[in-house]
Write a structure and sequence with these properties.
By secondary structure, the protein is α+β, with helices and mostly antiparallel strands. The chain has nine helices and twelve strands. The longest helix has 23 residues. The protein is globular.
Length: 457
């Protein structure tokens, strides 16, 4: 156990460990698994046992639950399903089943303690690497292109992002290293307010990404009318203007359910903001700081994003509009893997992988711009879209219905693009995230758009 207050785990390298749009190898799978485990341990070794077993918010699990749940998923999918090996702890399957136990109930369960959870993780991982070294990566759909190993690495990284959100919710002294903030881009003042995304069809989704999840498939053609999209995500300063103009007190801008939610919970600003004198400050990973006006706004729910867009005389982009802006290459008609092309994400392209503990200033990463000219479509903040989470035409659940299918419907809104807390293995132009429209603890912001009149279909 580490001593309370030990600082660790803020900055992580972002070497790329996911395959491209071709075949995936056992080496890539092993690297992705190792990278995820390094992050998991960094996010938990920095806290004493008492903080790992505490529930810092009813919205989140105790961190020790996530720790053992990660091991249990490997036990089920990589040892038993992929390797045909005996389970390490089959008795834990029900205990760490996320569908059986809602987050508020998990502290009352007979969970493994931190030392037991770490030992379980280590024992399972040792056996998993034996499976990976022997498994034929073809034939069986679970094993082809190391899919089940890539799926599991993504699952762990997604829990790591959730655990980082728990760090943000916890009270107490800072324990994560906080790198120096990124500088604002030199050409920021020259950027246009919005960029044109031409109308016409494009290919949405994928049929070639080896580790794409079932909800990203299959590739299909979608027609999108021309629209004008914010060049960068909505900033803190722009959102503060909405607050100062009485946006939180005017029901004209709010979805009826959002207005009711805002009133019931007395919401008057993004989560973690508070008034200090004539201005605002925020709490970020145990530190209090003045709001950085040029950063993308973060910790807003879908209802807040939608209200801002209405106030600004604009709207949230649909999921298809967002993906077309991020991937469509007008010159060739093809859809890119990432906004900048098919090459792996580097630090010049996007703020991913927990290199920083905050979004980069709006307008950053010119090398990561999409063909339409929009920047920061990957990384920095998840972006709310107008769309409900729905299956694509021809969708087929894989490897089990609970991965995506049970979440389809009007209850969940789609987010796109990843955040500074999202690892590259779980972030690409086709990746789909979803959550309830009231969620604010996630690292989510947004950008707005408007329909372009007279610019084609």
């Amino acid at each position: 156990m580490n001593e309370p207050g030990r600082r660790h785990g803020g900055t992580l390298a972002t070497e790329h460990t996911a395959p491209g749009s071709g075949r995936a190898t056992a080496g890539q799978a092993a690297a992705a698994l190792a990278r995820a485990r390094s992050r998991t341990l960094a996010l938990t070794d920095c806290l004493p046992d008492a903080e790992l077993t505490s529930q810092h918010s009813p919205l989140m699990s105790p961190l020790v639950w996530d720790l053992a749940h990660i091991g249990n998923q490997e036990d089920i999918w990589l040892l038993r399903q992929a390797g045909g090996r005996p389970a390490v702890r089959p008795d834990l399957d029900t205990l760490y089943d996320a569908f059986r136990h809602p987050r508020p109930d998990r502290p009352s369960l007979p969970l493994l303690d931190p030392a037991q959870a770490r030992n379980y993780l280590a024992e399972v991982r040792g056996r998993v690497l034996d499976v990976l070294s022997a498994a034929p990566l073809d034939g069986n759909p679970l094993l082809a292109d190391a899919f089940v190993f890539g799926m599991t690495a993504q699952h762990e990284q997604q829990h790591d992002e959730t655990m980082l959100a728990t760090h943000q919710l916890r009270r107490g002294q800072a324990v994560l290293d906080d790198p120096a903030p990124l500088p604002a881009p030199a050409d920021r003042a020259e950027l246009p307010r919005e960029v044109l995304v031409p109308g016409g069809p494009f290919t949405m989704g994928t049929g070639t990404e080896p580790w794409a999840l079932d909800n990203e498939r299959p590739a299909h053609t979608v027609g999108v009318a021309a629209f004008l999209l914010d060049t960068v995500p909505v900033t803190v300063s722009a959102y503060t203007a909405f607050i100062d103009d009485g946006g939180y007190r005017d029901p004209r801008w709010w979805h009826p359910a959002g207005w009711e939610h805002r009133q019931r919970h007395d919401i008057e600003a993004p989560l973690f903001w508070r008034r200090e004198g004539a201005g605002w400050v925020r709490r970020r990973f145990g530190r209090t700081e003045h709001l950085p006006p040029g950063e993308p706004v973060m910790h807003v729910c879908w209802y807040e994003a939608d209200a801002y867009a209405r106030w600004a005389g604009r709207r949230l982009p649909t999921e298809a509009e967002w993906e077309k802006a991020a991937r469509h290459e007008p010159a060739t008609g093809r859809s890119r893997r990432h906004p900048w092309g098919d090459t792996a994400p580097g630090p010049e392209h996007a703020n991913l992988g927990q290199r920083h503990l905050r979004p980069a200033p709006a307008g950053s990463f010119p090398a990561g711009a999409a063909p339409c000219g929009a920047r920061q479509l990957l990384g920095d903040v998840w972006e709310w879209t107008a769309s409900d989470f729905r299956p694509y035409p021809g969708f087929s659940a894989f490897p089990y219905r609970e991965y995506s299918e049970v979440f389809f419907g009007p209850d969940h809104k789609v987010l796109r693009g990843g955040s500074f807390a999202t690892d590259p293995v779980a972030c690409r132009g086709t990746f789909r995230n979803w959550d309830y429209p009231v969620r604010r603890q996630i690292f989510a912001g947004f950008r707005t758009c408007r329909t372009a009149e007279g610019e084609g279909r």
